[in-house]
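ok so i was messing around last nite and threw this chain in just to see what happens. nothing serious, just curious
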Amino acid sequence: MAIRAVHDQWGAVFAHLPDLGCRRDWTEVWKVRPIAPLTCDECRHPMYAKVSSSRLRFFAHAPGAPKCALAEESPAHHLLKLELAAAAREAGAHAELEVRGPDGAWRADVLASDLAGGWKTALEAQLSPITPDDIAARAERMLGDGVASVWFSDRVRAPWFGTVPWARLQTVDGALAVVEGLAKFSGNR
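result:
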């Protein structure tokens, strides 16, 4: 499940934005004939616009897609990324989803930054298993490009808790809330 695709004329389009991020309407890519010219930013395979039974808009790979990280993304991971982006925006930050590092060595689920560009922090939705060494290496690659990171999970215990700045999330009174975590922030980060 992906929220980002590439239109061959408009560039990057985002299913969660009312104007797709390019001043276009969802109806211009969803249920149109011929199918809108969309491809995956990750594997370049054709994609098409879909709406889930819960009315969530997203892009799906056309049949025959190669193994692709975006194709394997779970609905829970997708929704958590949207929640993290919304929280960053509500706090006054600029937030973009699925942003690649300068050399392509990493991709942030959500890249939050101040509007002046003075700081950048990756907000990572980590719902699948990962080793402490792997998560530390991912965080280090981001930090090498000047991007701090905070990792979010709904797991009660994960082996990487304490290895990187983290927060455990839980639904409280119908809303997602941080219920535990350890994060070190310095300056404006």
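not much to say yet. Residues 4-61 form one domain.
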